[in-house]
Amino acid sequence: MNIKLNKKIIKIAVAALALITTSATVAPTTITNLTTVSAKAKKHHKKVKKTKKSKKKAYVIAKYYDEFKPGYSYTYNKKKGVFIGHKMKKHHTSTTDSDEPRVEKATSNYNVPKVKEFTKDIITKYNLKKYRWSKTNITVNIQALTNEQQQIAKDAIEQINNLHIINLTIITKKANITITQTNKDGTALAETTLESTGDEYKGLNITETATIELCNPALNRNAKGNYELKLNQSITHELGHALGLVHTTNNETNIMNAVQHIDYNNLIDSTHVAIDQDYINSLAILYQN
Ligand SMILES: [Zn+2]
User: Fold this and answer.
1) Quick one: which of 51, 150, 156, 256 is 20 to 30 A from 169 by CA?
2) How many angstroms does the Cα of residue 147 sit away from the middle of ligand 1?
3) Which domains occur in the chain, in start order?
4) How far is the CA of 245 from the centre of ligand 1 (A)?
5) pTM above 0.85, yes or no
């Protein structure tokens, strides 16, 4: 019995010794470090408290979000269960300029005026929708179209890209512009819907997405036996809308004219319309600014 007990005691003693030695080799530096840090932190904490007391109303308290005052930056204090708001520095509150979206300008050099703001006169003169993309590289998804329609869409996209104002890139993922088709019958040949990010730039809304829906029955009815040309005209016209153009009224040869008769347009060949100067100028003033 005695021997066994001794053995146990010895074992425990050995184990304890082992613990001491291992901790002794690692611990000293860390322990001293820790103490110095926490001591510093305490000092700092005291300092902060003092200045808060001496300064009159350096912060405000809010229980809920809707109590937040403008000009204060709030952080939640878990201990107190309230939001503490510190007055923001003046230069911080007056950064409204940087809230304006980052907007890319086209590097093209078409002869259109430089504008600080898109005024009503400019909007009317250039047939603008008061929308533009914030960038000049815009993606397009045409996957919902038939193979024939896709080929025609690719040509129309290339025609617009050849103006070297903006660049449309066809992708198979979610894109900025989506072209779809429907067999729903109606009077419209196609419909384009724009959504804004809510940001404004020089009086224009920044476009977030555009969806073009081609209406097959109406397109077929109006094709006059030349479906390729009709679709080329329609896609060029709808992409014009998607990029920020509205209808023109005084020139029937315009692609953006409300009356889309293919016999009015100037053509580059039997299946492609020629993009007119008004269309080019509208894109140029939108994106060169
Ligand atoms: Zn239209």
Assistant:
1) 256
2) 24
3) 56-99 (no CATH), 120-288 (3.40.390.10)
4) 9
5) no
